[in-house]
Design brief:
single chain; alpha+beta; Aminopeptidase; 7-stranded mixed β-sheet; 3 helices
Length: 147
């Protein structure tokens, strides 16, 4: 299993966008649109989990997430693992790669938005805020120090 941090110039970029577009999670289509529209700029990246070259999961590191007008940055978002690969700690591996990457850029904390219960807490995230997302649902904003 390999974890790759990719930019839009990567040969994997379109493969990951295709995978996201076709995956079982509706948000994958939004990620694919963002990837194809040039929404990722500067240090923003997609982290891909690969099994012998096959895309089996992804997440992102971005300046913002789905909740506008908050002072938090950077974010880990779009965390998804293919159903066939769940239970192998791929989320943890991708989140760790994202945190290591952000720390290498000089960030000392990272944020994540989710409505999941007791998922990101096991990775050391704590809820610091609750806000309404662009689709009208209340989401939790998590934070973790990068150590």
């Amino acid at each position: 299993m390999a974890i790759e941090i990719i930019a839009s110039s990567s040969p994997l970029w379109e493969r990951v966008a295709d995978y996201a577009d076709a995956c079982s999670w509706r948000a994958g289509q939004a990620l694919a649109r963002d990837m194809r529209s040039g929404a990722f700029t500067g240090w923003e990246r997609v982290i891909a989990a690969l099994d012998e070259g096959r895309v089996c999961g992804y997440c992102t590191v971005t300046k913002t997430d789905c909740i506008p007008d908050v002072p938090y940055t950077p974010y880990i978002g779009f965390v998804f693992v293919d159903e066939a690969y769940r239970g192998n700690r791929l989320s943890e591996k991708m989140i760790r790669a994202a945190m290591d990457y952000l720390k290498s850029l000089g960030f000392d904390r990272v944020y994540l938005t989710s409505d999941h219960e007791n998922l990101y807490e096991k990775y050391g995230f704590t809820v610091i805020d609750r806000k309404t997302a662009s689709w009208g649902a209340e989401e939790k904003i998590y934070m973790r120090q990068l150590s």
